Automatic annotation (TrEMBL):
Signal peptide: none annotated. PANTHER family: ARAC-FAMILY TRANSCRIPTIONAL REGULATOR (PTHR43280), REGULATORY PROTEIN POCR (PTHR43280:SF10). This is HTH araC/xylS-type domain-containing protein. The keyword Cell inner membrane does not apply. InterPro entries: Homeodomain-like_sf, HTH_AraC. Keywords: DNA-binding, Transcription, Transcription regulation. GO terms for molecular function: DNA-binding transcription factor activity; sequence-specific DNA binding. Pfam families: HTH_18. The keyword DNA-binding applies. SMART domains: HTH_ARAC.
């Protein structure tokens, strides 16, 4: 059951990142929303993803920015 809860929490974190990557998103804010301790969420995220929350968020933001540069007429400044 613990593994299921860990996977579910990790999926919820990723969903929030993908939906709100363009805001000032923090692990503390997500932990509050999901009713978990930030240290616990950080630990399970790193364990499941093999990357920290902040590294994942930064990587996802770069991924989205690259896609926008290729797929839209937006300038680097706009992105």
């Amino acid at each position: 059951m613990k593994t299921h809860n860990t996977k579910t929490s990790q999926k919820k974190i990723i969903h929030i990142i993908h939906q709100e990557f363009d805001s000032d998103l923090t692990l503390d804010e997500i932990a509050t929303r999901l009713h978990y301790n930030p240290n616990y969420l950080s630990s399970i995220f790193r364990k499941e993803m093999d990357i920290s929350f902040s590294e994942y968020l930064s990587s996802y933001r770069h991924h989205v920015a690259k896609n926008w540069l290729v797929e839209t007429d937006m300038s680097v400044k706009e992105i």
